[in-house]
Amino acid sequence: MDEETGRRGAPTISEVADAAGVSRATVSRAFTRPGMLSPGTVARVREVAGRIGYVPNQVARALSTGRHGNIALIVPDVANPFFPPLIRGAQARADLAGYCLFLGSSDEAPEREETLVAKFAGQVEGLILVSSRLPEERIRAFAERRPIVVINRDVSGLPRVLIDTARGIAAAVDYLADLGHRRITYVTGPAASWSNQQRRHAVRRAARRRGIEMIALPAHRASFEAGREAVPEILATGATAAIAFDDVTAQGVLVGLAERRIPVPERFSVIGCDDVLGATTFPPLTTVSARCDEAGEMALDLLEDQLAGRGLRDIRCVLDTRLVVRGSAGPAPAA
Amino acid sequence: MDEETGRRGAPTISEVADAAGVSRATVSRAFTRPGMLSPGTVARVREVAGRIGYVPNQVARALSTGRHGNIALIVPDVANPFFPPLIRGAQARADLAGYCLFLGSSDEAPEREETLVAKFAGQVEGLILVSSRLPEERIRAFAERRPIVVINRDVSGLPRVLIDTARGIAAAVDYLADLGHRRITYVTGPAASWSNQQRRHAVRRAARRRGIEMIALPAHRASFEAGREAVPEILATGATAAIAFDDVTAQGVLVGLAERRIPVPERFSVIGCDDVLGATTFPPLTTVSARCDEAGEMALDLLEDQLAGRGLRDIRCVLDTRLVVRGSAGPAPAA
DNA sequence: GATTGACACGCAACCGGTTGCATTCCACTC
DNA sequence: GAGTGGAATGCAACCGGTTGCGTGTCAATC
């Protein structure tokens, strides 16, 4: 008993062994391989263990077996609503497989991500990196030490899951074109982001195919504010609709328009991407669903395969997307 | 080298010792107590270690020292915007103190929280439980094993930080009263929540003091939808303003009002609580700031004190709040 | 020149589990 | 009654670090 804190050291396997009159090996097996022991012994050991409050020490177990039972999931920013569904998906799968999920948030800073990964690497069996901001060679270096699965980052040679918004974006452009829009803008996201590049190209391609004009506007900062501040520029282009890099940016656009008393969708149409806001905006946001939850599930399945020794090293899972029509896009206003 | 995966076992302290021609103890000390060794030895050992890619094994270290260098932070739901600022605050402090923060999300389910805490308990030095949904005796039981700090839960005997919204709420009621509102509603949050009870009482007390009428409306579900669905009931009371349990609920109210083309704040005023949405709504939400980031910082500081052996076991930190005026509340409409 | 003490380093035990192998016991077969 | 095989359990090494204590070296002191 620690005098200072009143907290006593947890009972160890040896104490249980003494109390039950068996060897430490037997206690260990009573928990890990009960089939090896006589039913009576198992019951007796467990009873004693329960009585004195013994809980196997995970750390010691990990040291001798090399298996920690933990998986780390690192995201750039927990505050970004894109990630929680993904986290939840991964967590559900981790539960099923008996793994404990450790979450880390890097605040979009590569250095923080680096230290986070390094610290986690020693305590988990594998890691999932979401929208990693790390240089590719660093990711590869870590992958030498531990199995790694990446999400939304196309690192060849590693298992990766990519959300392919191209199809959904194309549907969004078609939708706008069908509604009579002839000039649209794309409000850009982080320049370094794989998703942003992919989305921007998708908008451009689809617009060209439909013969409508597309103007890309650089985002000066992150997300919401970027969207809000882009509104004057958007309007200056003479466009009648905007597709935003993500839902949060789209929400910014929505607010910027509301501030100028421009009714949506009557006078201007807005489409987001990711479908993370649900119907919490006004008007409810028409958006491209990214199925983030499935991305999380899939990443965990891939990692599990790696850990089990089965599963390919170089596998590229692409998740398709579709347009979710709500109320923020409508017919182009008469000129 | 593992034939299957191409991944080799990490170099151990023994390999470094052999390569550098010193004992394992010396290698260990070269990293943990360089002052004990001659500068030349330290340099040589580190050089060799770096060359063969040695990284101290955290698990082994934790086993022998009992110090893991990890802290767990468990929240009910990462998707709730209340938590990210708190997480960030805690993380910043953890960095400073050299701890690695493990995050867990319990999805509001006590059983999940229970297993999460149990799994984490063996691998961290201490835990922070935010808005825990666990029965008090369970929290106490875990606190026997590891230092625990709780946030927004008044468990006597444990270090706890409480966000006291009473003052801010009172200011909000005063503000509304000053603007001429005579009947207001409070849109309730989760019944089991400590914060909800506290806020509800605060509204009632302040309303009585100012001699205005206060009507509490039960929330049928969580947050956003609760707010949106409460709008008809709110309007039926004849009230001219609403204070919502939290910002997300307030956002729901805002959307519900917008759907009915009721302009805010011209015809109805809305005030939220927590200040987690910033100015991302339209109109920007007037709200009671909860200083969640500071709560996270403070909790980590308290935990650190516990771990260092200093610090009281039974300490109750109360964070004050204040009203943040934006644009969602205005003068009461003329009757 | 013997004594002393600081310094640098090695030895070996220890943290709390797991596990290959040896041992004991017993029922069963020939 | 000796031989055999399987079931139940113990022994002891091992996982990869940390650390108290002991030893050897060398310069300073008397």
UniProtKB/TrEMBL annotation, chains A, B:
Pfam families under this entry? LacI, Peripla_BP_3
InterPro entries hit by this protein = HTH_LacI, LacI/GalR-like_sensor, Lambda_DNA-bd_dom_sf, Peripla_BP_I
| HTH lacI-type domain sequence ranges | 11-65
Q: Which UniProt keywords apply?
A: DNA-binding, Transcription, Transcription regulation
The question of whether S-adenosyl-L-methionine is a record keyword is answered with no
Q: What is this protein called?
A: LacI family transcriptional regulator
- Which organism is this entry from? Alsobacter ponti
